[in-house]
Structure formats: C-alpha cells, structure tokens
Amino acid sequence: MDDTTGYIDTLNSGEAKIADTQEMKDIMKVLDLMLTYGQEKTLDASWNEAAAMFAQGKQAMIFEGIWAYDTIAQIAPDMEVGLFALPITDDAADTKMAADVNGTWHVSNTSEHPDVAKDVLNWIVTSDAGRDFLLKECQVIPAMKDMEFEGSNPLSKDVAQYIADN
What we know:
mainly alpha
C-alpha cells in the first residue's frame, strides 16, 4: 500500500475492514499457499529452527529476513543463499520486498547526558573507526546516503542492493 498510515486510520475509524481490502486478501492467498506447502506444524518451529532446517537442506526456502543468516552460516557456511521479493499477485509490479534499515539508534529525551550520547552517535557515523564498527562489525545496512553496506551477509547485500535499485 502506498499510504499505510492512512489505511490504518481508516481501519481505526471503521471506514475500512481488513477482510474487504484487496491487498490484504492478496497476502492471505500467499499465506494460505505457505500453510499448504510448508511444514506440517507451522507454528511449532521458531525462526531459528526454520533457518536450521533450511541450512540442513530439509527445506527449499524460508520466509525470513537477514537475521536468519547467522544461523544458516553456522550450519552451512558455504551455502549460497539470497533473498527475493515475495510475489503477492500475478502482476510483477506488485512484487516488492519489505526493505528498510535493520536497526536504529537514538538519544532518549530522558537521557541524563544527551550531548554525550549525540557525540557518540556523531562519532560513529563520521569517523573511520565508527563507520568500520557500524558497517563491518555490526553489518548494518546504512540509512545514510553517504554510506554503503560493507558487510559479508549475502542476505543483507541483497536488501542493500534492492534499496539502491529503488
């Protein structure tokens, strides 16, 4: 949906219903397919177990995000993996990947030392050492336009490329 906030407002006001919304009907069809062709007891496995089963070759694919890679890599470090956008309808234009930054840092408005906290955050995004920590150690997909993803997680690389391609 182009205006998710507006849609939520119409749900809250009673002007719209989830069951009457075509986009929601479309995603439910996809979820029904997952239930039909997925593992037998879909609610019995955690995301970590799903990633492990995938890494062991017991599943062809999983519905997960970049966080699953660490589990996969521990079990199958040489496994080639990637993400793809989930087709929701038969129209290719509707096929999108939910992509955003994988974490945010902020200074609380109740912080006793907001200036120090802001200095630390500024150091992280402006210094070479801070950027290395953020991009290489933490494997963060950056939200700042003057930074590029530098991590080794292939799933994060796919998301970073998807974002770069608009």
